[in-house]
């Protein structure tokens, strides 16, 4: 009888795939397998749907794409005939006319096993029930004589419910010795604590060690932070990989009477505001890189939003790929011109000043007859913003550089932005950052920068930009608080309205002024048409505008702020509650 293996060496490939780049993703898998082979690994593991890139969205429904993924998996399977490590890799898979979110075990020159995701997420940014068929709760796969359970992402996330297939319980009951969980888990603030609590629950209920492998990198609005980890069966941390960077890490597991155990490297993790900033950097970097832009440009106003975006851009791409343009008009204060120049010098970016008076005055002259007898109002303010947007887009067209949009979440919530003006651009790194956090991140960047940042250390955002009251400078002596409540109050109300979906009555009862809350709710609702046309941007909160929050533009409902009427259960017939019996009037 063959003695059971005493050692099991697993390489975790926490990598950055690109959606649709099947050949490129396969090349990354081969390079990682070569590293794993050099480390003497028995197995190399990749993240969820790695060969396709995650999330592939409706691209995964394209038959040609499905065929390309299948062909790449087959080629990787043939590679394993060389006697090197087995491969556990995610891919879409068509079987019996159904499309599955699959994980393939490749070993000894063949596709040795397939496991299909059983629990398909259909909330927040996830939309898998409309894409994939539900797989069965299958038993473990055998790798070099060791029985490995392969629950895929949501297979460990969902708690018991009517729709939940308890994959981990099934694996434990059918002899799994260790759980390896490929994930595509996007970043949100404090997400690591949630992941760890979910993993602890699965280890506790199964008594098995667990490896949680996440991808890293930006994909449109989503950023995947990596931060993969492993837990021993006693809930001690077996390994922790870094966040926001690629990592190929080999773990050596040893068998004992109590099961498999590992003592691997434990990397420190960035958290809180530092993690949010790192997510913004990675999201912008990958959007630019993966879409082939040579660089970026942005309007530098001397204000804090454009200053933070410029710092993020330089950290993401390097100063040589960032261009700043100051577009002053007669309402632009000298201090704004001075601060913008200081910012550009501190960051080391190309910087130019293009006055817009001639263009704005030209538009006003053209419209003078049409506007005859009408008072000046926000229309003329918007003309300034749209002139700036037009000039930035012209430079973008000529150079190929992408315009970075610089509006924060507070402004996007209440519509404090101009369509086809300052909303112009291809990507917004601070779209999901409230204004109060913009201030915090700007101060933070002057004392810290993330690992791998390409910008200079030290103070890069002039302190005066951080301390000066924010203003759009579209009219004389304008400040944001002329038309908005203080940002501390505004952001607290918005967080309750957007992230928590709290009724107005609840917000008012928490101590906020009824008139202010009602007004902010109205602004939030009527700005939906603007947000629908906004550039994509990095998700960092629990609920971003876009994938998380899908409100109709045409929407007449308004919360009155009064307590909701309690349901009258006496009006509901017992026979009406989903009964299969025939209706009797």
From TrEMBL:
Sites where the protein binds L-glutamine: 123, 185, 191
Matches recorded under Pfam families: CN_hydrolase (PF00795), NAD_synthase (PF02540)
This protein's pathway: Cofactor biosynthesis; NAD(+) biosynthesis; NAD(+) from deamido-NAD(+) (L-Gln route): step 1/1
Keyword Ligase: yes
Binding residues annotated for deamido-NAD(+), in chain numbering: 382, 411, 530
GO CC list: cytoplasm
Protein residues bound to ATP: 299-306, 406
Single Gene Ontology MF annotation: NAD+ synthase (glutamine-hydrolyzing) activity
Chain positions covered by the region annotation Disordered: 545-585
Enzyme Commission number(s): 6.3.5.1
Record SUPFAM superfamilies: Adenine nucleotide alpha hydrolases-like, Carbon-nitrogen hydrolase
GO biological process, one term: NAD+ biosynthetic process
Domain of life, source organism: Bacteria
Enzyme class of the recorded protein, top EC level: ligase
Biased composition annotated in UniProt, kind: Basic and acidic residues: 545-561
Domain CN hydrolase: 8-255
HAMAP family to which the protein is assigned, alphabetical: NadE_glutamine_dep
Function: Catalyzes the ATP-dependent amidation of deamido-NAD to form NAD. Uses L-glutamine as a nitrogen source.
Membership in a protein family: In the C-terminal section; belongs to the NAD synthetase family. Belongs to the NAD synthetase family.
Name of the protein in its database record: Glutamine-dependent NAD(+) synthetase
Organism, as annotated: Bradyrhizobium erythrophlei
């Amino acid at each position: 009888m063959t003695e059971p293996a005493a050692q099991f060496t697993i390489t975790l490939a926490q990598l950055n795939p690109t959606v649709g780049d099947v050949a490129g993703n396969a090349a990354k898998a081969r390079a990682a397998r070569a590293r794993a082979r050099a480390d003497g690994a028995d197995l190399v593991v990749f993240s969820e749907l790695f060969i396709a890139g995650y999330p592939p969205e409706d691209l995964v429904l394209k038959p040609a794409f499905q065929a390309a993924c299948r062909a790449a998996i087959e080629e990787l399977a043939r590679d394993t005939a060389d006697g090197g490590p087995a491969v556990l890799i995610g891919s879409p898979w068509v079987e019996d006319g159904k499309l599955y979110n699959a994980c393939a075990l490749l070993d000894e020159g063949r596709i040795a096993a397939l496991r299909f995701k059983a629990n398909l997420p259909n909330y927040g940014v996830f939309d898998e029930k409309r894409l994939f068929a539900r797989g069965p709760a299958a038993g473990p796969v055998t790798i070099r004589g060791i029985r490995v359970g392969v629950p895929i992402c949501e297979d460990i996330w969902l708690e018991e419910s009517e729709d939940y297939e308890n994959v981990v319980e099934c694996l434990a009951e059918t002899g799994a010795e260790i759980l390896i969980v490929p994930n595509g888990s996007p970043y949100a603030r404090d997400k690591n604590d949630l992941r760890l609590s979910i993993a602890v629950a699965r280890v506790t209920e199964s008594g098995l060690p667990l490896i949680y492998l996440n991808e890293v990198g930006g994909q449109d609005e989503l950023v995947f932070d990596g931060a993969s980890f492993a837990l021993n069966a006693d809930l001690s941390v077996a390994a922790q990989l870094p966040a926001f960077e690629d990592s190929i890490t080999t773990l050596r597991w040893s068998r004992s009477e109590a099961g498999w155990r590992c003592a691997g490297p434990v990397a420190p993790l960035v958290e809180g505001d530092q993690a949010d900033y790192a997510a913004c950097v990675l999201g912008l970097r990958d959007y630019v890189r993966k879409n082939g832009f040579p660089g970026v440009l942005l309007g530098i106003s001397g204000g804090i939003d454009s200053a933070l975006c410029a710092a993020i851009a330089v950290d993401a791409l390097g100063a040589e790929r960032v261009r700043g343009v100051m577009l002053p008009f007669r309402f632009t204060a000298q201090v704004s011109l001075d601060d913008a120049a200081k910012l550009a010098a501190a960051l080391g970016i190309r910087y130019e000043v293009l006055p817009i008076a001639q263009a704005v005055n030209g538009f006003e002259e053209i419209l003078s007859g049409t506007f005859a007898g009408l008072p000046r109002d926000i229309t003329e303010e918007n003309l300034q913003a749209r002139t700036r947007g037009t000039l930035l887009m012209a430079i973008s067209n000529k150079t190929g550089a992408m315009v970075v949009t610089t509006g924060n979440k507070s402004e996007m919530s209440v519509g404090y932005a101009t369509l086809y003006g300052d909303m112009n651009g291809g990507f917004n790194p601070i779209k999901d950052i409230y204004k109060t956090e913009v201030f915090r991140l700007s101060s933070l960047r002057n004392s810290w920068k993330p690992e791998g940042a390409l910008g200079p250390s030290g103070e890069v955002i002039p302190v005066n930009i951080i301390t000066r009251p924010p203003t759009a400078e579209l009219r004389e002596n304008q400040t944001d608080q002329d038309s908005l409540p203080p940002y501390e109050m505004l952001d607290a109300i918005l967080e309750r309205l957007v992230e928590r979906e709290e009724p107005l009555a609840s917000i008012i009862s928490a101590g906020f002024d009824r008139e202010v809350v009602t007004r902010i709710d109205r602004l939030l609702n009527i700005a939906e048409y603007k947000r629908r046309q906004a550039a994509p941007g990095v998700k960092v909160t629990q609920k971003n505008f876009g994938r998380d929050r899908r409100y109709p533009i045409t929407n007449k409902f308004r919360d009155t702020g009064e307590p909701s009427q309690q349901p009258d259960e006496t009006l509901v017939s017992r026979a009406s509650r989903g009964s299969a019996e025939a209706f009797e009037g």
